[in-house]
From TrEMBL:
Gene3D superfamilies with a match to the protein in the record: P-loop containing nucleotide triphosphate hydrolases
Pfam families xref list: DUF87
Domain of life of the organism encoding this protein: Bacteria
InterPro entries: ATPase_Atu1862_pred, HerA-like, HerA_central, P-loop_NTPase
Identification of the protein by name: Helicase HerA central domain-containing protein
Source organism: Pelagibacterium luteolum
Positions of region (Disordered): 476-503
Domain called Helicase HerA central: residue spans: 10-72
Amino acid sequence: MTVDIDMGTTTKGTPARLDLEELLATRLLVQGNSGSGKSHLLRRLLEQSAQWVQQCVIDPEGDFVTLADKFGHVVVEANRSEQELTRIAGRIRQHRVSVVLSLEGLEAEAQMRAAAAFLGGLFDADRDFWYPMLVVVDEAQLFAPASGGEVSDDARKLSLGAMTNLMCRGRKRGLAGVIATQRLAKLAKNVAAEASNFLMGRTFLDIDMARAGDLLGMDRRGTEMFRDLEKGNFVALGPAMSRRPLPIRIGDVETSARSTSPKLMPMPETGADAADLIFTPSPDEEIRSIPRRVVQPAPRPTADILAQLSQPLPRVEPEPVSLFPEIDAVERDAAIDAVLGEILEDPDASFRSVAVLYQDFLVRCRIRRVPGTPPDLTEFKRRFAVARAGVDTAGAQSDGWQTAINLAASLPEDLQGVFLMVARAAVEKLSCPSDATLARAYGSHSASRARRLLTYFEDRGLIVLREDFSGRRTAAFPDLGTETAPGDANGPAESPDGRMAAE
């Protein structure tokens, strides 16, 4: 059954629909600075989907407890033992009750331990109770920090492990993670990378805009729009909402948070007795005298210090073996090469923008379960240029190819793929590519433009072109010490493996 929920309106005035069933399978990441409307967005999502799916809200500030009044959510106060929270979470999955875990009033470390215990109970429920559940985590950077802070390593590992389980392995157990954060730079990358749907709000820091742009497949210039977004406006992307970045405005909500933004109000008139109000205690005020005591530590005997220094160093315990399998770099590179090969098989791939190709690449990596964090946009451009030239990752490690890649790095990004295609022909003693082949690699149908590219390479001193008496062209590479075999410049377009390219 397909359920579309109304999240608001697009810039064209049409309804912004979110496919709830697709969301349950692909997860959601919401990002925006404080005051950008993240909590309002989450509340809209929860209200619109309350009748369709069981919900659990991890609420560090107690803002979402008002959902209980209208939608029947049960508020679970987190001031309990970890074992009790785990058992409650198991019963929640069994009886399919929507809840709000209120962490208000707890210290940061206690919040992390309570959230980890509760998420662990949801995750470890019996298979018979793996019903679909929307798990919303507000201020996710508190529970999945990118680096250690003032909390203990034990608490951070527990919380980060629970969040990783939610986003990486929760789908098969019916758990759909929806995480919201103020700053992507403070959120653990392995948690953020598992989301396939994104709603990006207003942000100002360059590092956060860059990460948001990488997730949306946007270049650095396009990320400037995040500074200009108004409160409640977000850019949506993902299979549950839109295949292309779509600006939307979040609609109204039926409930409100207990805490609201501060409002300006006139100062009270205190008069001349303002000092008395401050320095004179009221009759019902509790007066406690806190004596100030300075306790000087007793001097440590010299014999104790010498005895400690003479003791051998403690034995360093070996690190425990990880419960998760190690990522095989060779296997991962082979999987990435296979994904790039799938993209290049599309005859229209050469004529698409890099941003569109990168978004297609990320989706294919998730479909094929490529392990580890996917390459960023810069790494993708480099790998795609090598793959477009017809070279796999193993072949790219040879000395000749490393020299060719270094030479290509001095060229603009849109020309590197064309240069590497000609370099490959020289390294492997293949025929010099035709103008039609080079034009296709550049994303053009113009053969004259391909000839201008070769002239540009020659002017830069990277290649030397010559033609024989039959008009066949050869490209020599002085820095590589090799040259291509003669090739017909007016021949048809071919794929990197030498086959005729489909038109």
